[in-house]
Amino acid sequence: MEDRLRLAVGVMGNAGSLMLYSAPMLTFATVIKKRSTEEFSCVPYILALFNCCLYTWYGLPVVSHRWENFPVVTINGLGIVLELSFILIYFCFASNAGKKKVALMMIPVVGMVLATMAISTFSFHDHRRRKVFVGSVGLVASVSMYSSPLVVVKRVIKTKSVEYMPFYLSFFSFVTSSLWMAYGLLSHDLVLASPNLVGCPLGMLQLLLYCKYRKKDQTVGEEPHKWDLESSHDDEDNTKLNNGEAVGAVKLEA
Hints:
Elements: H1 2-22, H2 25-34, H3 43-59, H4 70-93, H5 96-122, H6 127-147, H7 150-159, H8 167-186, H9 190-253
């Protein structure tokens, strides 16, 4: 019964993660359309790639015992493909300074992934120690990934606008971290559960901020329409006034 429940939660976790990793598609459709990255940050996608690489390695039989963490491998493998695609799109449409920033972040990320793979393979000779080592590095990566939107949260609080904090990214981040926390607890695997204990409250924080400042965005969005309406009335009044003056002038001349 427990194994079936664990498998069911793992499948739901995969579905939630798929939504999380594919959520930025809407953002990058806008980037491609406008041919500009505007104020969007690439940091969350680079950290998500780092996280996916580590947990794909964690779930493979080299680290885990056989295929006990097969759901972890499948979804994180797909995550690698999606995150790489987003980073490449961002790189194509970023400014020169933005491209330089992406490159400077990618080099240490790739280096840390390769170093983790090499150390876990050649320095440890049993699955338990390999899982502890890779899981510890993965814990840091996961906490970084879940906390990376705090960069955007700072902008949201400062500007009182959620324009650059996509709702679906925040929502699926919360749902996914909740499901994988449950999966880790059911598997008695604290390595999988621990980072999500951080991800849940951070995801909730983003959703609360979105609800708070979204209303203000709507209010601000409505005000220009009101101003436009008033100015159009003013224009009509001015036109009528001018017409009246013109008629008066004709009568006077007559």
